[in-house]
Amino acid sequence: MATAAPMIGASIKRKEDGRFITGRGKYTDDINLAGQVHAAFVRSPYGSAKVNGIDASAALAMPGVHAVYTGADLKAAGVNPIPPGWLHAGIQIGDRYPMAVGTARFVGEPVAVVVADSAALARDAADAIVVDYDELPAVTDGPTALSAGAPQVHANATGNVAFNWQLGDADGTDAAIKGAKTVVRQHLINQRLIPNAIEPRACVAHHDSANDELTLYVTSQNPHVHRLIMGAFVLGIPEQRFRVVAPDVGGGFGSKIFIYPEEVVACWVSKAIGKPVKWTATRSESFLSDSHGRVHDTDVEMAFDGNGRIVGLRVNTVANVGAYFTLFAPAVPTYLYGTLLSGQYDIPVIHVKVTAVYTNTVPVDAYRGAGRPEATYALERTLDVAAGQLGVDPAELRRRNFIAPTKFPYQTAVALQYDSGNYEPALDRALTMVNYAQLRKDQAAARAQGRYIGIGLSAYIEACGLAPSHVVGSLGAQAGLYESGTIRVHPTGKVTVLTGSHSHGQGHETTFSQIVAHELGCSVDDVDVVHGDTSKIPFGMGTYGSRSGAVGGSALFLSLQKVKEKGRLIAAHQLEAAAADVDFADGKYFVKGSPSRSKSFGDVALAAYLAHNIPSDMEPGLDSTTFFNPGNFVYPFGTHVAVVEVDADTGHVTVQRYVAVDDFGNVINPMIVDGQLHGGIAQGVAQALWEGGVYDSNGQLLTGSMMNYALPKAEFLPMFETDRTVTPSPVNPLGVKGAGEAGTIASTAAAANAVIDALSPFGITHLDMPLTPATIWGAIQQAKGGK
Amino acid sequence: MYPAQFQYHRATSVQHALDLMAQHGDDAKVLAGGHSLLPVMKLRFATPAHLIDIGRVSGLSGISESGGTIVIGATTRHADVASSALIKAKAPLLAEVAGHIGDPLIRNMGTIGGSVAHADPSADLPAAMMALGATMELTGKGGSRQVSADQFFVDVFQTALGSTELLTAIRIPASSGACAYEKNPDPASGYAIVGIAVQLTTSGGKVSSARVAMTGLGPKPMRLAAVEAALAAGADAASAAAKAADGIAFIDDARGNASYKANLARVYTKRAIARAMK
Fold first, then answer.
1. What is the Cα–Cα distance from A217 to A249, expressed in whole angstroms?
2. Which residues of A are less than 8 Å from B255 in CB distance?
3. Which of A131, A264, A486, B41 is 20 to 30 Å from A677 at the Cα level?
4. What ranges in A300-435 are assigned the alpha helix state H?
């Protein structure tokens, strides 16, 4: 009997790509409902302003304009503020109504909405609405917002402090730093990033008055979360009458996790006027209103003994959260950041203090990596500064401080317990691939010729597969972080997968089909995956935090085991064998030792639905649902190495090589994982070298378009050289870890370290990102002048 | 992205276009390839009430040679300029620069006249026009006049074109392969932070005269007279390029401070001259 090639581990082409690359995907903006009207928003042009009054008479007089509503209208109708989904002790929440009520707090905040027969007309009408503002002083920078006399963003957040949070042993860390041989101190700015998914946000809301049912099509990474928060907390709609559909979604990077004002308004207006309401963001609106990422201002103190061993770490961070908290915002600079500050290192005491501060900018929330890139950058950048100060090679300094493989499970000083890990093989493999020793020689030779090559390492760890519900609940999460997965076997043996995960580019239709095909011995083409529709799938938590494979995939795996077991009982019954004597392989149940006595999976599926000949105590049918709630996060790790050359005449950086060695545990589709890694590396390198969102002190976004916000382009980057080590995760039955964010988490520090390494002959030890040619050239001139 | 409402007019001839321009005055904009105008209309930075499309006016596009002068119709696409055998042979600098503009989609739609008339201070073509000594043919009701590239570019997005004149053709004297365009593209927009176009005239292996023009670092493209004079006097690339920032008041902005810009001017001038001399 031929054994089918295992589908877990196979680099098959993505099933969904056919429709995507031929323009046949069905995105939210492709949905048009009979009688729909289009919404356009009037947005605040000021960083901070009192809204005195809104004159919509000219707009309402335009033929084809149906209605104009303001923030006050919605509040009066009982629409509640959009709440964050994670709370901390002492948190001061500045209410975010869907449209500004009285005060607008950032440029781009919705102030009024107009609905009209066409999108173009709605835009014209919005431009005809006159808002009477009093501009108020604004503050956009975190540390400035904390300074005395700074403009106050919310009355209830004194001094603009949204919350103070700390983790670890303050006294122990003080003592370790005081007693250390060397203390390395570094101030770091992790700049603002603007997500830019290829598909802008969009929604179509339809209230059916006959049954009082609301349907919302929306660009969401987590439709059930959207339904729960919008229905139960914001709009007051019974969940059973509220359907949220996230169809094909073109990228998110976290920005489509959150519940946004525009979709709340569209739902409310649809009911108010009795028509479907559609809205699609322009790219300009994306820049101005999608939640941004990062924006940390951090001081790191890393203390060493005489052998280059870290004896303590203190981190103080001011996290700029923007004008309001969106869904994950309180968790990102805290539990997704402070808990990761041990990295791959055996650090006996750590203390981290975070001050979250309101400013007059777009809300800041999870962006690919969410907290973990910030932690990795703080650690890995400071380690390179330390290597220079201590006169130790950066690779050696990391190796010296790795957690020994014998110490797992390892309890960090910042709450997490790492289940597994073995860090030296990944470092060694990366150094071998890049030919580190030779590269250092080449670097020295190049310097002698006036060429500046730099080598940057980043040894990262991330906690992902977001996860343990009881843990996150105890830490302030207002939801669990399990995932649902249903296997529905049809009478013909074909399979429909219903998953609470949501693909917005990750390739779940392929990956999840591979899990099914692997387990049932069928073809991936016999499996279809349904996601993103709350009326079809069981309650699920959606996709973010590199969780879909580890949590959603595992839910499916467990459902498959239940299906296979029921099938085994049916097969045993029909084969007149004891269940214990029946095995399953390659899509067939057979009696051990006599493989010709067999039933195909399809035969068994049909039997389950015919129910003519199944065990008498068995229910007909063949399907199963599992809510998988893992016991811990998963911990991918690895070492990345960037090699750059800096043109000292212009400050221009060329990325020459990029080597990534990662441990994602078992890998379901290596090609998809490589693709996620490649995209992540590009995004992370882009933070180091090109991207930076900039507000002026009045709250105007200076980088509000792709003309001045530099997203990475393929031509900026070399071919990536990747490899993997495999340490299966013990916390899920597939042994997989998350791979969606690792590239972003690792690569920013690797690229930044490489540039600073290249500049070390000038005595430069740190520059804040993005490391633009102007910044680099200026630093070189300053260094030359200072000599 | 929806532009404000406008009325679309398809001109059938140059005369028709001029009539429409006269009729609608400042309320009208001329549309050629649309790759500069339409984006700013979608952002509603520009809200012309009338668009006069000259894209299908016959006789406005094409490349020919007449008595040592290359004549390029205003609606000739960048891709056609970049790939023209005649341009490659007789104005290789222009072929190189046209091949640097935007990306293939833009080069397949954008036109040489549209780009030059738009006069974006970071566009590539204006520097080439100056380095090549191009002449713009401006056609109005009373006929055509010829304006040199040096006189054509006036300020940010401003040219010598009158409000009822159409740029109809560009004339370029045939030139040699002793040329180069060195560009430092902005990583976001792809526009030139700095672009230096160099056209040398050589005799007996020596530079007899030089035209060097810079785009990107000021409100309009400019000739680098001190550099040209140094080259004509026999200076090498390094010493000529050292004068690239002489007498220019650069300003500090998001792309860098004045001293960085002056440095870029010198570095890219040196690179362009060195390559042109090869």
1. 11
2. 774
3. A486
4. 372-390, 394-401, 423-434
Question: Helix (H, G, I), strand (E, B), or coil: what is residue B27?
Answer: helix
Distance of CA B73 to the CA centre of its chain: 14
CATH no. of A31-136+198-251+256-289: 3.90.1170.50
- Comparing C-alpha atoms, which of A7, A4, A8 is closest to residue A733? A8
Please answer yes or no on whether B260 and A652 come within 8 Å at the CB atom: no
Cβ of B1 within 8 Å of Cβ of A283? The answer is yes
Distance CA A223, CA A233 (A): 15
Residue ranges of domains in chain B, CATH in brackets: 7-53 (3.30.43.10), 63-173 (3.30.465.10), 179-277 (3.30.390.50)
Taking the C-alpha atoms of residue A525 and residue A287, their distance in angstroms, rounded to an integer, is 39
Options 2.60.120.260, 3.30.365.10, 1.10.3720.10, 3.60.21.10; which CATH number does A293-467+632-786 get? 3.30.365.10
Within 8 A by CB and 6+ apart from A687, the residues are A191, A193, A294, A373, A744, A748, A769, A770
The per-residue DSSP string of B122-157 comes to: T-SHHHHHHHHT-EEEEEETTEEEEEEHHHHEEETT
CA distance A206 to A214: 6
Nearest to B2 among A120, A705, A777 (CB): A120
Residue A786's pLDDT is what?
Answer: 59
Report CB contact under 8 Å: B260, A778.
yes
Give the ipTM. Answer: 0.94
Question: What is the DSSP code (8-state) at residue A705?
Answer: S
Q: How confident is the model at residue A479 (pLDDT cuts 50, 70, 90)?
A: confident
- The CA–CA distances, whole Å, from A172 to A186, A415, A552, A571 equal 20, 15, 40, 63
Q: Is B68 left (phi over 0), alpha (psi -120 to 50) or beta?
A: left
B-chain residues within 8 Å CB-CB of A781?
259
Q: Which residues in chain A touch residue B6, judged by CB atoms under 8 angstroms apart?
A: none
Residue A579 DSSP symbol: G
Q: What is the DSSP string of B82-106?
A: HH-HHHHHH-HHHHHHHTTSS-HHH
**Number of alpha carbons in the 13 Å side-chain half-sphere of residue A45:** 6
SS3 per residue for A98-163: CCCCCEECCCCCEEEEEEECCHHHHHHHHHCCEEEEEECCCCCCHHHHHCCCCCCCCCCCHHHEEE
pLDDT of A93-106, one tens digit each?
Answer: 999 999 999 999 99
Amino acid (one-letter) located at A127: D
Q: Identify any residues that bridge with A303 across adjacent strands, giving them in sequence order.
A: A183, A312
List Cβ neighbours of A597 (8 Å cut-off, separation of 6 or more).
Answer: A575, A577, A590, A591
CB contact under 8 A, B188 and A652: no
B169-208 pLDDT, tens digit per residue, is: 999 999 988 999 999 999 999 999 999 999 999 988 899 9
Question: CB B188 to CB A708 under 8 A?
Answer: yes
Query: Chain B: nearest CA to A192, how far in angstroms?
Result: 16
Q: In this complex, do B188 and A706 lie within 8 Å of one another by their Cβ atoms?
A: yes
Q: Please give the C-alpha separations between residue B193 and each of A374, A709, B78, B214, B237, in angstroms, as whole numbers.
A: 31, 14, 20, 10, 21
Q: Residue A501: name the closest of A512, A493, A490 by CA.
A: A512
β-pair partners for B155: B158
Tokens standing for A103? 């005060």
Contacts of A707 (CB under 8 A, 6+ apart): B188, B189, B191
Residue A271 and residue A211 in contact, taking contact as beta carbons nearer than 8 Å: no
- Nearest Cα neighbor of B137 from B160, B105, B110, B104 is B160
